Amino acid sequence: MNTFESLRTVFNPRSIALVGVSNRPGSVGNALLRNTLGGDFDGVVYPVNPKHRSMRGTKVYPTLRAIPDRVDLAIIATPSTHVLGVIEECGQCGIGNAVVITAGFLETGRAGAALFRKLVRTARQAGVRIIGPNCLGFIRPPIGLNASFAARMALPGKLAFISQSGALCTAVLDWSIRDRVGFSHFISIGSMADIGYHDLLDYLATDPGTSSILIYMESLRDAKRFISAARSIGRTKPIIVLKVGRSSEGAAAASSHTGSLTGDDAIYDAVFERAGVARVNTIKELFNISQSLSMQPRPRGNRLLIITNAGGPGVIATDMHIAQGGRLAPLSATLREKLNQVLPAAWSHSNPIDVLGDAGVTPYTETLRHCLDEPNVDGILVILTPQAMTNADEIGRALGDLAATSNKTILAAFMGAADVASGTRALTAKGIPVYDNPEEAVTCFNLMARYARNQELLTETPESVPAEFKPKTAVNQRLLARVRDAGRHALNENEAKQFIANYGLISPPHAHAATAADAARRAAGFGFPVAMKIMSPDILHKTDVNGVALNLRSKRAVMLAFRQITRDAARLRPKAQLQGVIVEKMVTKKYELFLGSKMDPVFGPVILFGAGGVGVEVFKDISIGIPPLNMALAKRMIEKTKIHTLLAGYRGMAAIDMRSLQFLLYRFSYMIMDFPEIAEMDINPLGVDADGIVALDAKIVLDPAPPPRHAAPYRHLIVTPYPRELERTVRLANRKTVRLRPIRPEDEQLEAEMFRAMSPQTQRFRFFELIKDISHEMLIRYTQIDYDREVAIVAEMRERGVRKMVGVARVIGDPYHETSEFAIVVADPWQGMGLGNVLTDAVLSVARQRKYRSIYADFLGDNHAMHHILRKRKFTFSTGQNPVRATWVCAH
After folding, report:
1. Domain 293-458 bears CATH identifier 3.30.450.20
2. 3-210, CATH topology level
3. Strands 303-308 and 379-384, bridge-based pairing
4. What positions does the domain N-acetyltransferase occupy (predicted)?
5. Has this prediction a pTM greater than 0.85?
6. Is 196 in contact with 228 (CB distance < 8 Å)?
7. CA spacing 20 to 30 A to 469: which of 203, 270, 575, 889?
8. 3-state SS, residue 866
9. Least confident stretch, 251-260, 346-355, 536-545
């Protein structure tokens, strides 16, 4: 049984065995028995306890083997020392799923951790999938099942809640009942011996009863599978995470700047952004944003317009909005004139729009009506404070009716509790979320805006790279081998600059000098002025040992500086291996930037970019990215820094070449992708101005443990990069050559052009219908794929020097590598060349490599070419149906 089928059985069981039930009031076993028998669950419950014959009028079985019927799910609440035996018995009885409520594993120290590892091994050997241990259990309101020891039943609804903390689950449950928040699934996953976040995300993605997924997260183990699942699901169902546990370890001092510039929590932010996940800081925010995303359209930006009948709440909302990075929507001259016609002369004439304290239904509705037409408004917040003449119910109904006609994001803050309760109900009934105060509403709007921005980032078409990129990977491999052979784990500056130059990151002319005379000769060759820096693999922060001299303008100055630098380094770092100095042509750039990487134990390499120089750790104007980067992701990293304003041109200053800087980040990401042995890297300062970019200093620290031989490529990344190993060129029967390669996000325009070259029949064969024009949304679905879950091989030709996509075949796999779907299309001008056969073989080869168990393809009965291609490859065909289903079982 695969993970999906297992979870479907877990959350929709027909029969449950409760192992460890008890008559003792207050015990977990007693609560489990009371909850499962006392609800509306219409399945069969089998209590198991060898010391009792019956409980609560229900027969109790001594063992799992004694149960006469098939059991879908075992819920285990025995002492931890007995759990392994119960899991073994589950396997022997054919019970494939278990929820282990029992504590006493990872949370109890070394002995508990050892028992946890044994539990994992035992479950795998027995073929039992586990939720837990150390969990509360789960609740399924739609089927009336409370398979937990929580005291109350959750309300039914469309939210799925996943939590590592059982104690938090009970608090959230109480809160949700008070505020009438309902759930499709309420799941406590505990220590995650087996089933993890990614498994539940993939399952909940297919559940029609779930609209949003909420997660309380303390830690994340399988980051790669989490980000893959989240990126796949987030486009259709919002995922909102409350991550706690801010670590101090990640901020500890390290051997390069990168290690001290960021901690674990900042990396989580970057990972969630890359996954398209919304991150919140409180439980209230967790449910507020989920409610708002389910009720309202996502804002297109963060420009908020505030309508209020009291100045104070409007100012509070404004302050909170600006502090969170939001913007106030400007009032156009046209809007001001319209509002002058419907509001008293004393209205605020600015945003927030103060309609004044005595405003009734007409000022509110007319103001909202005109504001809904403003193109520069992304969201509207309506604030109401009850006055003696305020009819909250009437205003709420009117605003709700009007808001229902718009696709703008509209939120409300009706302040006054019981005085505005009827207005709150009227708005909520029309799909307008209402908050108790402006701060909550503004926070929710900004969370929605950030979530929408993250989703936009996932679907943004990156521009193509400015030039062909051919790194000298093999040269760098030999360089690192020499460093390791010398017994070192850090490159000296000369080696580091050679290393980055092989990936296109250029430094000023420089050379190694072992003596003062050699330094003077090198300097004269470059031309004055020059810079000089101590060279030592043991001294990474050169300024700490007075190891830098700038603007040296003569041979004599160079020789004096050489002696001073080497003398200070020897005095301050007596054990350091001194290799002389680096003499470098003095280059002055307007801006100093920082570019670095760090190997995180959970997330692999992360990239840091921002303002550089000696103050980099003081100002910490840094953004974090997750490789691989494309041009769009590189652009976002740059834009998130404060120094971006200067780089883009500020108050008449010349802007830098932003595309060149994006391309540099793109190349840097490939460098750390190709070399997993890099533990930390700094390029600081990275000099930039309108005339170009140069790396003025570079540090590279290697992991002391060498990378394992024959390891899978890119195993250290949590986002699988473009699989370059699948590229190849083939010659067709007509002697034309075609390049086969995986599809890229940058291929959107090529794919659109290929679509336009398809005849109506080819369209019908591929899509089962005629499509008038292919949309951006369809194109990003086809070009922006997760290489872990899908591979699309395109055939590319050149005609008169122009690249053309002439065909594409793809396999779309399930998350468990059980099955995959095959599809193929060749545009009409290039049919009849044998491309269909070539592309089919290419993707079937990938499917075999990935060990998919079977592949299926659906095609129309009159698509004879497809039938011929699949029949040659031993697919079996369904009969008597259209579309035809063809299936191929992979032999491994």
Report:
1. no
2. Rossmann fold (3.40.50)
3. parallel
4. 738-892
5. yes
6. no
7. 270
8. helix
9. 251-260
